[in-house]
Every structure is written in C-alpha cells, then in structure tokens.
Amino acid sequence: MSKPDTFRVGLSPDFYTDAKGYFEEPVQEVFGSVPWIDCGPMPPQPGNIATPEALNQFDAIINLALRMGADSLRGVDRLAIVARWGVGYDRIDVAALTEADVILSITPEGVRAPVAEAILAFVFALSKNMFRMDRMTRAGQWRDQLGELNGDIRGSVLGSVGCGNIARKLFRLARPLGFRRLLACDPLVTPREVKHLGVELVEMDTVFRDSDFVTVNTFLNDTTRGLVGQGHFRLMKPTAYFINTARGPIVQHEALVKALKEKWIAGAGIDVFPTEPPPRNDPLFELDNVILAPHALAWTKNIMHDNGVEACGHVLKVALGEVPERVVNPEVLNRPGFRRKLERYR
Questions:
Q1: DSSP per residue, 137-193
Q2: What is the pLDDT of residues 32-41, one digit of tens each?
Q3: How much is the pTM?
Q4: Which member of 27, 49, 208, 288 lies 3.0 to 4.6 Å from 235 by CB, making a disulfide possible if both were Cys?
Q5: Distance in angstroms (rounded) separating the CA atoms of residues 176 and 92
Q6: Is the pLDDT of residue 1 over 80?
Q7: How far is CA 183 from CA 159, 170, 237, 267, in A?
Q8: Is-cis flag, bond preceding 187, omega within 30?
Q9: How many CB atoms are located within 10 Å of the residue 286 CB?
Q10: Are 182 and 212 in contact, with CB atoms under 8 Å apart?
Q11: Which residues are part of the catalytic machinery?
Q12: What is d(CA 103, CA 21) in angstroms, rounded to the nearest whole number?
C-alpha cells in the first residue's frame, strides 16, 4: 500500500465552540509548514458523540471532549490516532480504540502546571476566606464582624488522592510555602519515586484524616468512579477543605453536599461536576462554604498552547510513521493492523 498524498486530521467540533480563538495558533505552529497534512473540522457530531462515518474520513483526530464509544469505532479502519487535547479520557472507550488499531495519546506536559496552580488558587482562596470577605466588604461590613481568623498555609498538611504528574507538580510548587507535611495515596507509585519531593505515601484514610487540604488528582476510570464517599468526609477535620479539579464522578456528589451542608468540613473548591454543565438545581449552588468553577480554572493561555503543541506533535509523529510519546494503550503498538497503518505513512 503506497504512502497517501494527504494525511487528514480532524478537529473535534467542540473546539469551534469551547476553544475558539485558542486552538488555532498551536495547530498552525505544528502543521503550518507541513503541506501534506490537511487539518480541519470534523463534521458536526450529534450529541457530541463520534460516528464511524465521520471518524473514517480521517487518519487522525485531535479531540477536546468528543465522546467515542464502541459504536463510534465500529467498521473504522482508516483512523490511526486519537490525540486527546488534555489528560482525561473517561469519554473514550480505550479498549474499542485498541480493537480498531488506534492509538490514544494524552498531553500531561501541557496540563500539569496550570492544574497544579488552579489547585493552589483554591487552597489560598479557601484558607483566606477570600470570597466571604469580598461579600462582606461589598455589604458594608468590616473586619470586626469576621467572627473568626483566616487559616494559615504554613504548618498545615496538604494531601492528594493520586500521585501522578499533576500531584507531583503540585507538591513541587507547594513545598516552599511551608506545609508541614505532604501526603499522597496511590497504589501505582512507590515511596522511592516521590521521596525527593518530600511526599509521604500513606493509606487513603490517612490522607483524609490528617490533611488540612485534600485534593483529588487521579484519572476517572472503573476503579476510581465513586472512590471518595461519605466515610472519607467523616474522617476529615472540621477545619479542613476538600478540592476537586480532576473529574466529578470520582466523588460521590451526595456525600460531598452532605459534608458541606452539615459542616463536617470547613469548605470545598470544586471545578468539576458529575454532569457537565451541572443542572441549575445542583444543591452546591445554595451553599456559601464552597467555591465553584465551570471546569475551567486551569484554562490558561499556556495550557491551550502547550496542550495543542503536544497533541499536534503526537499526530505529526504518526504521520511520519513514528510512534508518539504518551500513548495510553501501548498494547496497540504490536497489533498487525496498527503496524500496517504506521508502515503506510513512512
């Protein structure tokens, strides 16, 4: 089979609504000088779910948040790579991609710093009561009406559920701030891997029991769905805060609401929800001890640029007949069908 004259790259339709004005520069930066790469929008996808007819028009898909299930891949034989613009892939059926001889890649290099900064933004906003103070000041109140003092970062304990790329960057940024202990639980990480960061690997219950700030930094999959529940919030100090910038379904939402309503914990910073966008009657909206964001606290110019360059770079490697870095399903690399696709591009 001869090398194709054109390598077609499809951008998921949601780029043109959710990221318009931000994705174009990195796409041009990587593909602009490669005339045989044809990059453009996919056809509209009903319900933001990919169809086989659309996928089969492309050699590569760069995916913002398009859903891809087993039905999406049925009969697809042209596609070689889905490059996720980010790190979460809970909307993608990885096993179905592998069965269709398609690589899935992610972009941890672009994500880790902006998300770690977003977590620390929540840490500071919550501990310093910034939103409450803003409301007080606007209402004509002054510091004599505070009732309680703000919290300190220095001497407190920072904990993470998960200790991968984002958590490690978080700990690197947090260490000079004076945290007394840095805790994490992660069955896939050894103490030796994080010793240089000063991180203690402990049981998940210990993270919740001992931390003043508990952050969630793990993927959403079958083993982590509903991982954090009522029992964990019961373990937390009444002065502690819970922060989730990972994925909403990792946390049992009703348990989080109950913990905040009944003041088991001091407050929370939430950037992700079980359903996105959340329904207008989500009970979190009624609470004043939680700071909410629309899954965008880490959406910065840097994250959009760096994710784009990294994702497009993965696609370019495949277009050259090479294997990119950050492959989620490495078992696909030795499948004869994928090897034939790669050989065709060389």
A1: HHTT--GGG--SPPP-STT-EEEEE--SHHHHHHHHHHGGGT-SEEEEE-TT--HHH
A2: 999 999 999 9
A3: 0.91
A4: 208
A5: 38
A6: no
A7: 4, 12, 15, 19
A8: no
A9: 11
A10: no
A11: 247, 276, 295
A12: 27
Q: Which of 101-105, 126-130, 148-152 has the lowest mean pLDDT?
A: 148-152
Q: What is the mean pLDDT of the chain?
A: 96
The answer to whether the CB of 321 falls within 8 A of the CB of 342 is: yes
Q: Give the per-residue pLDDT at 346.
A: 87
pLDDT confidence of residue 129: 93
Mean per-residue pLDDT, 304-328:
97
Distance, in Å, from the CA atom of 33 to the CA atom of 262, rounded to the nearest integer, reads 58
* Tokens linked to 1: 């089979």
Helix (H), strand (E) at residue 263: none
Token pair recorded at residue 281: 């009657």
Set out the domains of the chain in order of their start, with CATH numbers.
7-106+300-345 (3.40.50.720), 111-292 (3.40.50.720)
Banded model confidence at residue 2, pLDDT cuts 50, 70, 90: low
Cβ(58)–Cβ(82) below 8 Å: no
CA distance 51 to 44: 10
Question: 296-314 pLDDT, tens per residue?
Answer: 999 999 999 999 999 999 9
Strands of 1-64, DSSP E: 7-11, 37-41, 60-63
Q: How many whole angstroms separate alpha carbon 288 and alpha carbon 83?
A: 39
- In the chain, how many H helices and how many E strands? 14, 12
